[in-house]
DNA sequence: AAAAAAC
């Protein structure tokens, strides 16, 4: 085997053979083309093989999944097809993830690494039919990958038994806390034997995460591949300031500029709201860019199709909410654009963590408008460095000219529509169909030239709001009850010993 | 300010 010696402090000269992994696992690895462990794998595999608890700081794309999956498979091998009756469906290893897509990806990896063994695995997550999942669980699996909500659903239906779980993985644990999964997590963990091995992975080590670790891990070994809360050195970060209402044009400009420079067109554009996400995707498409939106109001099928399209290259710009900020394993993402600066600085770290992975270089570009000062300051404080300010070559940040052309074009389109008598009904998302489905016409706010054109303050109203906000306010329904603070929940939790 | 996740 050829190993490249890098000036790397941890992983130099190491091979998968040197961990003493079973020949069946090594065979699967070589079929996958894996030759040399990544730094996180080099650190995690021996520790997990020893049965120790692990607190791991690593983002997706560092090879983290193999870092826990390989040693777990190794440790479960003696139990494959063991005497336990399948009627008891004893799950031995449970891997929990915050999003459905991540669950699916982790499962996909596990299944590939274990393909030459007798170990069985499956994945359960929401948004899809429960019955096939129930059937798989009843047939019996040693390794189960799941999102918390659907797993509890199966637990209630008694289609799975967690009393024999010896290994628990909490993947992207910080995200699970952000998403309010702590109560579900606690309910699940209470069903597991206290005697078990627990691995917790998180991109950031917030106080809440440390607290979670203190509750559920026993003398964990800490593994870090990068300084916590830091961003990758090989990612070129940049912010571009434009006027309010020029953000869409700025993104179009950035994407075209990259295409002209012969850079890869593939790009994730992050947006803060689901509505803004759909709107930007539509705008990019109108500008002739292959774009698609992915967010939580899309059906699971749409989400999977969009991701597939992005992976096979029919989609260049994936416009996403933070559903895609963490965990989506998209190889070699050359560029991430923040259309909106994220509300939380930690989300910035996660978003730009989609690029520059496994040593590749990447661009993380952010659009900045007046009013974003605080958000940017928080980000720079967290990553402990300033993000360089760039200028968009050949772009008019006030957008006077573009605004004029744009509104002319929109007026023409509105005329055409009036002549036709209704909207065109293309690509809507569930929320919107729901809210407007029963109305007398196919009217949608985005069809109205007023809502679509760049924001201009109304001359008679000092409190005019940008179109985005107006639409968001008009469509917002069914708000969730405020979350209880994480610390309060942890404080009230029964402590595992 | 928002997003995500069980029916």
List keywords for this structure.
497 residues; alpha/beta; Rossmann fold; 2 domains; seven-stranded parallel β-sheet; 19 helices; 14 strands; disordered N terminus; DNA-binding; helicase; hydrolase; RNA helicase activity
What can you tell me about this protein's structure?
This protein has two domains: 17-224, P-loop containing nucleotide triphosphate hydrolases (Rossmann fold, 3-Layer(aba) Sandwich), CATH 3.40.50; 235-390, Rossmann fold. Residues 1-12 and 422-497 have low confidence and may be disordered. The chain has a seven-stranded parallel sheet, sandwiched between helices. Strands 10-11-9-12-13-8-14 form a seven-stranded parallel sheet, with helices on both faces. Strand 3 (121-124), helix 5 and strand 4 form a beta-alpha-beta unit. The chain has 19 helices and 14 strands. The chain starts with 22 loop residues before the first helix and ends in a 5-residue tail after the last helix. The protein is of the alpha/beta class. Helix 2 packs parallel to helix 3 (64-76). The chain binds one DNA strand of 7 nucleotides through residues 98-100, 125-127, 130, 147-153, 156, 175, 178-181, 184, 272-274, 295-296, 321-323, 325, 340, 342-344, 347, 469, 472. Residues 234-403 form the Helicase C-terminal domain.
